[in-house]
Design a protein that fits this description.
Blueprint (H helix, E strand, L loop, with lengths): L1 E5 L3 H7 L5 E5 L10 E4 L11 E4 L4 H9 L7 E6 L21 E4 L2 H6 L7 E3 L15 E7 L3 H4 L8 H4 L5 E4 L3 H7 L5 E5 L3 H8 L2 E6 L8 H9 L3 E3 L5 H4 L5 E3 L3 H13 L1 H18 L2 H17 L8
Parallel strand pairs: 1-2, 1-4, 2-3, 4-5, 5-6, 6-7, 8-9, 8-11, 9-10, 11-12, 12-13
Helix pairs in contact: 8-11
Length: 315
């Protein structure tokens, strides 16, 4: 089938377009896409003729309706929510709440639970990624953390915790503006490790002894799943979806800073334990966050939406 979506989250999109459909990606910038992907400029949207459209931002349903007019009603519609609510967790209304013209898809069970979606039908399709392969060496007795714009995002991503956790073992911080964060936190054992391309990032992450996940209030980051695929043990806050993603035997998940510090120190001192936990983490990731499962789940949802196109909302 022909599936239309706007280019938003690069890593998620890279996994999604590896399926068996013809993907129409709305993006005016220069991109290199795999076979089966057709890049569509915004001016070409009206001529794309999709069977199903996947929205990812609140303004996209209206933009689509304006472009297609009455024909929009014959297209299956999905809204994909990547994020946790911005406001109060228990009472935040989703922008697509109380709609019968689309299906709302969440990327974690936690997100589905926290968003108030009213009567809009919802499902969960958990993340899946292409397997980067087992790369773990753990040769550096350091921690790897991947956080984009750590300084700006602050407590939501646990950036304030990094100096304290770095006392247990130095942290190499990867991601956008890592150097800005370290410049603002001089004296902490946190080093900016660069904003690398995905291939380089995976290799460099896997050279560190463990992966550190400090997010308090974000959706489950793909870098955590990537670290597990690489064979890295995980030390994580027990927040949002992390307790489900990182089961016992693959690392330690806790909201007790003391336990996190003790675990980090233990893994630094015991490379074989770190390797054993990382192997278990990889086995879990391959089973639960593999690309095959991810694409199969999406195939089912896409087929359902194509068979039963959802009506346009009443005017």
């Amino acid at each position: 089938m022909r599936v239309l979506l706007w280019h938003l989250h690069g890593s998620w999109t890279d996994a999604f377009v590896r399926g068996r459909h013809h993907y129409l990606v709305v993006d005016d910038g220069p991109q290199r896409w795999p076979d089966g992907v057709e890049q569509v400029g915004r001016e070409q949207l009206r001529d794309s003729r999709p069977d199903v459209v996947v929205f990812q931002r609140p303004d996209e349903p209206e933009r689509f309706a304006r472009a297609f007019g009455v024909e929009a009603g014959s297209v299956g519609k999905i809204y994909l929510e990547h994020n946790t609510p911005d406001g109060p967790a228990a009472t935040s209304r989703h922008p697509m709440a109380d709609r019968d013209d689309l299906l709302l898809v969440h990327v974690t069970w936690f997100n589905q639970l926290m968003w108030d979606s009213g009567t809009t039908p919802t499902v969960v399709i958990e993340h899946g990624i292409p397997d980067p392969g087992y790369r773990y060496t753990g040769e550096f007795g350091r921690q790897a953390a991947v956080i984009n714009e750590a300084g700006r995002r602050g407590r939501a991503v646990g950036a304030d915790l990094l100096p304290m956790l770095a006392e247990a073992a130095p942290i190499d911080l990867f991601g956008i503006d890592a150097d800005r964060y370290t410049a603002e936190n001089r004296g902490a054992e946190v080093t900016a490790a660069g904003n690398l391309d995905l291939e380089q990032l995976h290799t460099e992450m896997a050279r560190r002894r463990l992966y550190l996940h400090t997010s308090r209030w974000t959706s489950l980051g793909l870098s955590l799943i990537e670290a597990m695929h690489l064979g890295m043990p995980v030390v994580a806050l027990a927040a949002t979806e992390a307790p489900r993603a990182v089961p016992p035997g693959t690392g330690v998940v806790s909201n007790d800073p003391g336990r996190l510090v003790e675990t980090i120190e233990m893994l630094i001192k015991n490379p074989e334990l770190a390797r054993s936990l990382g192997e278990a983490a990889r086995a879990h990731a391959l089973e639960h966050f593999g690309l095959g499962r991810f694409l199969a789940d999406w195939d089912e949802v896409l087929e359902d939406c194509r068979r039963v196109p959802r009506r346009a909302p009443a005017q």
